[in-house]
Amino acid sequence: MKITKVRTRVFEWKGHTVTPTPHFCANAMDELWDKGDSMGTFRFHGWTTVEIETDTGLVGLGNVALAPRIAKAIIDQYLAPLVIGQDPFDYEYLWQRMYRSTHAWGRKGIGMAAISGVDIAIWDLMGKALGKPVFKLLGGRTKEKIPCYASKLYRTDLKSMQQEAQSYLDQGFKAMKMRFGYGPKDGPEGMRANLDSVAAVREVIGEDIDLMLECYMGWNLEYAKRMLPKLERFQPRWLEEPVIADDIDGYAELNQLTSIPISGGEHEFTHYGFRQLLEKRAVSVIQYDTNRVGGITAARKINAIAESFSVPVIPHAGQMHNYHLTMSTLASPMSEFFPVHDVEIGNELFYYLFEGDPEPVNGFLDLDDDTPGLGLSLNERYFDQFTIIE
Ligand SMILES: O=C(O)[C@H](O)[C@H](O)[C@@H](O)CO
Ligand SMILES: [Mg+2]
Q1: Is the domain of 76 the same as that of 154?
Q2: 79 and 184: one domain?
Q3: Does any ligand 1 atom lie closer than 6 A to the CB of residue 179?
Q4: Which of 86, 101, 131 represents a domain boundary (last residue)?
Q5: Residue nearest to ligand 1 atom 8, measured at CA
Q6: Tally of domains in the chain
Q7: Which residue, by CA, sits nearest to atom 1 of ligand 1?
Q8: Average confidence (pLDDT) over 48-72
Q9: Where in the numbering of this chain does the Mandelate racemase/muconate lactonizing enzyme C-terminal domain appear (predicted)?
Q10: What is residue 42's predicted lDDT score, i.e. its pLDDT?
Q11: For the residues 270-288, what does the mean pLDDT come to?
C-alpha cells in the first residue's frame, strides 16, 4: 500500500455558540491586566481534518484541534510531501521523518499537533487495511467497557452548577470535573468563591463520586500553595493544570505538597516531554491529547513509560483518537467525556464534525471489536454549519 494524497480541510463553526459568562474558567491569560474575555484565545471553534488516500482506495482520517489554519499549512507544505509515496505501515519511520525534518520548529506546539493529525490518519488506515479497530493494533481490549467522567461544570451561579452536577448523577456518571472561575488577581473573595463552588458541587454529589478540579493554567505557584490545603477537605481525585505548562518544577512542588494529586499534560508534547514530567514526579495523572502529543505513535510510547512509573494516563478530551489508547492499556483507567451540548468552548464541536464516537451509558463507553480503524467518519449533516476551507 502506498500513500497517494493528503487532503486537509479546515472546518470553522459558524453555527450558534454560547457566550461564556465572566469568570467562566480561570486560564493562563488571567494573570495579565487585560480586561474582557480572557478565555477568548482558549475557544476551539475550528478543526482540521486530515484524509490520507492510498493506492488501494482506502482513506485514513485524522484530526487536529489547535490553530486549524496553521496546522493545515504545516501539513500541506511540510508533512504531506514526507509521507506521499510511502507505506503507512512504516509508521515509526514516517513519524521520525516528520519529527526530525521539522525539528527546528515543530517538536512541540502546533508543529507536533500537525504531526499528530497525520499520524492518527495513518493508524486509521492501518486498522482499515487489516480490518481491525486501532486498539487491536495497540494492545487489544483491556477493559470490558471504559469508565468515563463528565467534564464540564464551568463556573456559573452555584444553583446552576448544582443542577448540572445532579444531571450527571442522573445519567449514571460516577465522576465529574468542574472548573474554577477565579485566580490570584481575584484575591480572597475569589478564593472564597472557588471554595464555595467546590463545596456546592460536593454537597450535591456526596463523598462517593469522584470530583476533579480544573484550573486550566489560571493560577500560579504561590496561589496554588495557599489553595491546596484549603481544598483537601473536599478530597478531589486530582487538581488539574494549576500553573502554566512550562513551570514543571512548580508542578513537582505542588504534587508533593498535599494529599491532592496534581494532573497535567494536555499542553505537553512527545514521549520526551512526558519523560521530564515523570522523572520530576511533576504529575500524578498524565493527560496528553493524542491529537496534540504526537499522535498514536507517540501516545503508545508515553503509555509504556507511564506504566513503568505507575502513573495513570487519562487523556484530555476523550474522543475516539484517545479512546483507542485507553482501551489498549491497563495504564489508562478511564476517559474524559465532554457532554454534547451547544457549542461553547468548542470541546463539543468534535461531535458535530465526526460521527462514530460512542455514547456513554451509565458512565461507561465501549468500542466495537469489529469496526476497522478508529471508527470515525465526517458528519456531513452539519457541514452547512461550518465554513470549510480546502
Ligand atoms: O481538561 C480539559 O477538558 C481542558 O482543559 C478543557 O478542554 C479546557 O477547555 C478547559 O476547561
Ligand atoms: Mg484540562
Answers
A1: no
A2: no
A3: yes
A4: 131
A5: 216
A6: 2
A7: 316
A8: 98
A9: 158-261
A10: 82
A11: 98
Q: How far is the CA of 281 from the centre of ligand 1 (A)?
A: 22
DSSP collapsed to 3 states, the chain? CCEEEEEEEEEEECCCECCCCCCCCCCHHHHCCCCCCHHHHHCCCEEEEEEEEECCCCEEEEEECCCHHHHHHHHHHHHHHHHCCCCCCCHHHHHHHHHHHCCCCCCCCHHHHHHHHHHHHHHHHHHHHHCCEHHHHHCCCCCCCEEEEEECCCCCCHHHHHHHHHHHHHCCCCEEEEECCCCHHHHHHHHHHHHHHHHHHHHHHCCCCEEEEECCCCCCHHHHHHHHHHHHHHCCCEEECCCCCCCHHHHHHHHHHCCCCEEECCCCCHHHHHHHHHHCCCCCEECCCHHHHCHHHHHHHHHHHHHHHCCCECCCCCCHHHHHHHHCCCCCCCEEECCCCCECCCHHHHHHHEECCCCCECCEECCCCCCCECCCEECHHHHHHEEEEC
pLDDT tens-digit readout, 131-149: 999 999 999 999 999 999 9
Q: Which atom of ligand 1 is nearest to the CA of 44?
A: 9
Instruction: Tell me if 266 CB under 6 Å of ligand 1.
Output: yes
Asked if 179 and 90 sit in the same domain, the reply is no
Relative to the alpha carbon of 338, which ligand is closest?
Answer: 1
Q: How far is the CA of 196 from the centre of ligand 1 (A)?
A: 21
- Within a domain: 220: yes
Q: Residue 307 Cα, ligand 1 centroid: separation in angstroms?
A: 24
289 lines ligand 1 (CB under 6 A): no
- Counting from 1 in the atom list of ligand 1, the atom nearest the Cα of 338 is 3
Of the pLDDT bands very low, low, confident and very high (cuts 50, 70, 90), residue 38 is: confident
Which residue's alpha carbon is at the smallest distance from atom 9 of ligand 1?
A: 345
Domain that holds residue 245: 136-380
- 41 with 22, same domain: the answer is yes
Asked whether 347 lines ligand 1 (CB < 6 A), one says: yes
The answer to whether residue 385 sits within a structural domain is: no
Q: Is 376 domain-assigned?
A: yes
Average pLDDT value for residue range 121-131: 98
Residue pLDDT, tens place only, 214-259: 999 999 999 999 999 999 999 999 999 999 999 999 999 999 999 9
What residue owns the CA closest to ligand 1's atom 5?
216
What pLDDT sits at residue 39? 80
Query: Percent of the chain scored above 70 by pLDDT?
Result: 100
Domain-embedded: residue 316: yes
